[in-house]
Design goal:
This protein is α/β, with parallel strands linked by helices. Helices cover 32% and strands 19% of the residues.
């Protein structure tokens, strides 16, 4: 029996696949549903009234994963009348009505441009007892104007743009997210301040191509200005951004990073390939020399910067010489981490019909060599930090072995993952007093390819407002702009009349 059938409020669950943009979109989906009167299902609840799949279309197996999960839910829904299933995100934008044809037990399909329609579509589907499919071709409202239920007390995503004006031949995102739409700087900074007022210490500026920000209103220096403006916000301790495109990376952005104290010394900049021929076939409008030149400038301005990247192996037509050139660039760039992918053919992209599609065994063998090369370098780079003191923002869910090892985990300012020991009772940073969102300083004692360990007691521990919020179980919520969406259940009680000025608690 679902919660609603038992007389309680309707519950929801959001299942997210894909990139940071999808993670942030899911926060908005949660905010919309809660504004409409839904309640998040508990972790032990296996029959929420609404299950929302926020999908990704980048990987080849995305379709199989979605339809497999939808298949598992079909008998559950049959046993629980009134349960609804909604599918959104990039795969919904791509497959549209095909989703309902393949899985007729789905109630709602909505696209990347109309997240705000979800509560209306759910109510319409319930009323009409028929599936609702709404896919817009262009953005109806900028997503950040929607209410948002934040998942973290200490770190928040802030979208500065959506969509992309690039035409990379392997990427389906521009056709699903549309052309770049830039948000006004004042709106971005207002959202950042609202998060800081809630206790958030770190924001990540988010966009398909963050450093082309400003193209829509004609200011090619807008992104550097935005970074500097973030530096003037009291209480904002860390600023990150993802992902930039090398073709738009300018010296003023490097200067802004280096000169703004709360901008973290970390940079995620996709390489994709070290071969100029492959980059040309990918329509990546830079070459390896330019890419390495940017890294050289970043390290000259910020010697301790940690640089991470994305790399695709096995792009159509990639030769052994092309692949060796990628390994050469990896060795020269000295990445602190790399997200590595085997090329995945996506229908609708130019690369899907290119000649020279490589056999799986060739791609797999190259992929394994790339992994070995990357890990050799990341391990060597991490070993340089043994004996160094780092500042760690304590996190939730970063350390899968923390309970067994007695450690806690978080991120250093350069983005590296640190597992750290806690102090004994009465010492700085004892396990009872450290909360997610607090800040500790600790000394690195061991390095692995993907993380650092600090096995001595913390040198210091600073309790923060973010930690207070985590301890109280309070997540930040940004209200967005009310859109006249329908609500379910009993209306909220009207506020008591006041005289004079209202005083916030």
């Amino acid at each position: 029996m679902t919660t609603a059938a038992a007389g309680g409020p309707r519950t929801y669950q959001v299942r997210t696949y894909g990139c940071q943009m999808n993670v942030h979109d899911s926060e908005r989906i949660s905010g919309l549903l809660e504004q409409a009167g839904y309640v998040r299902a508990g972790e032990a609840e296996d029959t929420p009234d609404v299950v929302v799949f926020n999908t990704c279309a980048v990987r080849e197996n995305a379709d199989n994963r979605l339809y497999g999960n939808l298949g598992h839910l079909r008998p559950v829904k049959n046993r629980h009348p009134g349960m609804q299933i909604a599918v959104g995100g990039c795969l919904a934008q791509k497959d549209r009505g095909d989703i309902v044809r393949r899985a007729p037990w789905v109630d709602v399909v909505f696209g990347t441009h109309n997240i705000g329609s979800l509560p209306v579509l759910l109510e319409r589907a319930r009323h009409n007892a028929a599936a609702e499919v709404e896919i817009l071709e262009a953005l109806d409202v900028f997503p950040s104007t929607l209410p948002t239920r934040r998942e973290s007390t200490y770190a928040g995503w802030v979208s500065i743009s959506v969509g992309c004006n690039n035409t990379c031949t392997f990427c389906i995102v521009p056709s699903l997210r549309g052309k770049e739409k830039d948000r006004r700087p004042g709106d971005i900074l207002s959202e950042v301040r609202a998060l800081v007022d809630e206790g958030v210490l770190e924001v990540t500026l988010l966009g398909q191509n963050v450093n082309s920000y400003g193209v829509e209103f004609g200011d090619r220096y807008a992104f550097g200005k935005l970074l500097r403006a973030c530096g003037e916000i009291d209480g904002l301790e860390r600023v990150r951004f993802t992902s930039p495109h090398p073709k738009d990376f300018t010296d003023d952005v490097i200067a802004a990073m280096a000169e703004t104290p709360n901008v973290c010394p970390s940079l995620h900049m996709p390489l994709q390939s070290g071969s100029d021929d492959v980059l040309r076939a990918m329509r990546r409008s830079y070459r390896s020399e330019k890419y390495l030149g940017i890294i050289e400038k970043v390290r000259a301005a910020m010697p301790d910067a940690a640089i991470t990247t994305d790399i695709i192996v096995g792009f159509p037509g990639e030769t052994e010489a092309d692949f060796e050139r990628t390994l050469d660039v990896v060795r020269e760039a000295r990445f602190s981490s790399a997200f590595t992918f085997q090329y995945s053919k996506r229908p609708g992209t130019p690369a899907a019909t290119m000649d020279g599609q490589l056999p799986k065994p060739v791609v797999q063998e190259r992929y394994e060599r790339l992994i070995a090369c990357v890990e050799e370098i990341t391990w060597a780079e991490n070993k340089k930090l043994v004996g160094e003191t780092v500042e760690v923002l304590v996190a939730v869910g970063e350390g899968r072995k923390d309970e067994r090892t007695g450690r806690m985990s978080g991120r250093a300012r350069d983005g590296r993952l640190v597992h750290f020991a806690t102090g004994g009772a009465g010492e700085p940073g004892d396990a009872e007093s450290i909360r997610p969102g607090d800040i500790v300083h600790t000394t690195i004692t061991y390095a692995a390819p993907h993380h650092l360990n600090a096995d001595g007691a913390p040198l210091s521990h600073r309790r923060t407002r973010a930690g207070d919020a985590a301890e109280a179980g309070r997540s930040p919520r940004t209200p967005g702009v009310l859109l006249g969406l329908p609500t379910i259940g009993a209306p909220a009680a009207a506020p008591a009349p006041t005289t004079g000025c209202a005083v916030s608690p």
